[in-house]
Amino acid sequence: MVEAVPAVARRQSLWGDAWQRLQRSRAAIVAASLLLLVCALALVGPWLSAYTVEQVDWTQATLATPPSLANGHWFGTDANGRDLFVRVWIGTRMSLLVAVLATIVSVVIGVAWGATAGYLGGRVDGWMMRFVDVLYALPYMFFVIILTVVFGRSLVLIFLAIGAVGWLTMARIVRGQALALRQREFVEAAIALGLPTATIIFRHIVPNVLGTVIVYATLTVPQVILFESFLSFLGLGVQEPLTSLGRLVAEGALEMESSPWLLLLPSAVLAIVLLCLNFLGDGLRDALDPRQAR
Amino acid sequence: MISEPVLQVRNLGVDFATSQGEVQAVSGVSFDVRPGECLAVVGESGSGKTQVLMACLGLLASNGTSRGSVRFAGRELLGASERALNVVRGTGIGLLSQDPLSSLTPHLRIETLLTEGLLDRGLATRAEAHERALQALAAVDIPEPAARLRQYPHELSGGMRQRVALAAALMCSPQLLFADEPTTALDVSVQARVLELLAGVRDRGVGVLIITHDLGVVAGLADRVAVMYCGRIVETATTDELFATPQHPYTAALLAAVPRLHGESQARLVGIPGDPPQPSARPAGCAFAPRCEYAIDRCTEVRPELVPAGRWADSVAAVCAPGASVACHRPLHQVAENP
C-alpha cells in the first residue's frame, strides 16, 4: 500500500514522522500504555500496601494466605507469610532495572563495535567480527555462571554479565547496516569534507541505524528479563530479601499445588511485560522502517 | 592568467583489481587547474572521469590503486596519509557530488551539515559558524536562510539541495572545487542556476574542476576542456577552440551528437556507431580506432601520444591554438588536407 504523501512540506523530523506512524498502531499504543502502568506500579506499588518486602505477617491463620481484599494482602502472602503484592512490584522493578541496564550496556557496546567494524571494513572488520564469532561460540550460560561464581553475586555483575553477552547480536546487526551505509554518497561527501573517522561513524552512520537498534533493543529487553529469570531460577540471580519476577515464579512453582496464586500472579505480570514489549517492538519497527512492508 | 596551478596532475593512472584481473580505468592523465579557472573533463560513462577525481581525493574504492602524481598547492596527494588528506579535504578541495538527494546526510539539519567541517577543526566558534552558514546559504541564493538552517535535507527541493551541497563544499573556503556531474540530477531550469553559481565561485578565484558528459555545461562554464575516452585524455583545448575546430575524431563525433534545434542537422540525431571497448579488453592502438571513420592501419597498432599542437607541422600550428593537444595519428585538419 502506498502511503499518502502530504502535498505541503511539513516541518517535521524523521523521528516526528515515526512518532505519528507509531500512534496509528493501536496494538503498540495499548502495549505502551500497559507497560507504563506496570512501570508506575513497580515504582509506587510497594508503598500502596501496608506491608514491606521482608515483613512476615504473623496475624494470619496460615503463612500462605490466598489473595483477599479484606486483610490487605491483595495478592495473598507467600510461604513465609510475606505480602505478595509488594514482592511482585519489587520483583518487577528489579527485572525491569536489570533488563534496561543490561540492554543499555549491550546497545552501547554493540553499536560502537558494529559501526566501527562495518565502516572501517577490510581486515579490521574481519578481526573484529571474528572476535564476536569466538564469543558467540562460547557457551553463553557457562560464561555468566563462571563470572558470578568468580566475582561473587552482585547486581552490577548481573548487568555487566548479561550486557556483555547481549551485545554480540547487536554488533552483527549494526555492522551489516554500516557496511551498506558506507557506500552511500553522503558518507563519501563527509569524507571529502575531511571529517575524522570517529565523527563520520558516530554522527553520519550511527544515527542512521538507530531505528533498527531501537527495535532490536525493545526485543532484547524481554530476552534479558527471561535470562535474568533463568539465572534467578538457578539461584544465581538477585539475592533475598530482594526479588525478581523470575525468582517469584521459581518460588511459586514450588508451591504450585497448595497455593497456585504464588505462581499465577508473578507469571501474569511477567507475561504482560513480555507481551507488551514485543508488541511495542513490532510497532516501532513498522514506525521506524515504513519501507519494510508487513 | 599565468598563475601557479593549484592542482597539477601528472601521468595519473588508476587500476582496479577485479576478479577478471587488473583493469586500467585511467592511464596517463595529466592536467593543471589554475586559480580562477574552470577545467571541464568530458567523456561518456565509464571513461574514467570520476575516478580521476576520486584518486585526487584518496577516495578510490578499496580495490583501486593510483599511480603518477597529484600535487595540490605544492603537496603530493597520492600516497599521502589519511591525516594529511583530511587537511586538504574540505579546507583545500571541496567536493560537490552528482546526486544532491543522497549526498546530504538525511538525519542532520542543514546547519549541522554546513558547520561541522568548521566546528570539527575548531576553525570557528558555534556562533561564528552559524553566521557563516547563513552567509553561505545567502551566497547560493537560498531564501530565508535562517529558517532553512533548521530544516532537514528531505524538506528541500532538489535544486535547493544541490545549492546547499555547494554551500557545504565551500564552507571551509577551499582553493579548489571538484564538481562531479553537478547538474545531471537536476532539471534544466535549476541546472542553469547551479551553473551560474559555479561560475561565480570560479570568478572569486577558486579553481573549478568539473566533470560532465554534457557539452552544454562545458560551453557555458569551462575555460578549458579535456576530452577523455577509455581512461585517457584524447584532446585538450580551450573551450572556444574545441567547439570551433575539434581535432580528435572522437571530439568531433561528440559535438556532432549534440541535438540541435536549428540548422541542417535538425532532421536526425547523430550517434557514434559502435560501443566503447571493455576496460579489460582495450586495443593496443587508439581505443577509438574501431569506431573511427578515419582510422588507418597505424591507428590499430600504435597508440597515439597526447602531442601539443605546437609541435606539429606549420600548417597545423596555424589551425590550432598553442595550448591545445591531441592524441591522434590523423587529427581532423590532416584529414581535411589529404582525405
3D structure, described in words:
The complex is a heterodimer of chains A (about 290) and B (about 350). Chain A is mostly helical. Chain A has a single domain (about 40-45, about 75-290), classed as MetI-like (MetI-like fold, Orthogonal Bundle). Chain A has helices at about 15-25, 25-50, 85-120, 120-135, 140-150, 155-180, 185-190, 195-235, 245-255, 260-290. Chain B has 2 domains: about 5-220, Rossmann fold (3-Layer(aba) Sandwich), CATH 3.40.50; about 250-335, no CATH class. Chain B is built from 13 helices and 12 strands. Chain B has helices spanning about 50-55, 80-90, 110-120, 125-140, 145-150, 160-170, 190-205, 215-220, 240-245, 250-255, 295-300, 315-320, 330-335, and strands at about 5-20, 20-35, 40, 65-70, 75, 95, 175-180, 205-210, 225-230, 230-240, 305-310, 325. The longest helix of chain B has 16 residues, at about 190-205. The chains are: A mainly alpha (about 290), B alpha/beta (about 350). The interface of A and B includes residues 14 and 196 of A.
Keywords:
heterodimer, A: 294 residues, mainly alpha, MetI-like fold, disordered N terminus, B: 339 residues, alpha/beta, Rossmann fold, 2 domains, eight-stranded mixed sheet, four-stranded antiparallel sheet, 13 helices, 12 strands, globular
Give the arrangement of secondary structure elements.
The complex is a heterodimer of chains A (294) and B (339).
Chain A: H1 14-24, H2 26-48, H3 84-120, H4 122-137, H5 140-151, H6 155-181, H7 185-192, H8 197-233, H9 245-254, H10 261-288
Chain B: E1 7-18, E2 21-33, E3 38-42, H1 49-57, E4 64-72, E5 75-76, H2 82-88, E6 93-96, H3 110-121, H4 126-139, H5 145-149, H6 158-170, E7 176-180, H7 188-203, E8 207-212, H8 215-221, E9 224-229, E10 232-238, H9 239-244, H10 249-256, H11 297-301, E11 307-308, H12 314-319, E12 325-326, H13 332-337
Helix pairs in contact in B: 3-4, 3-6, 4-6
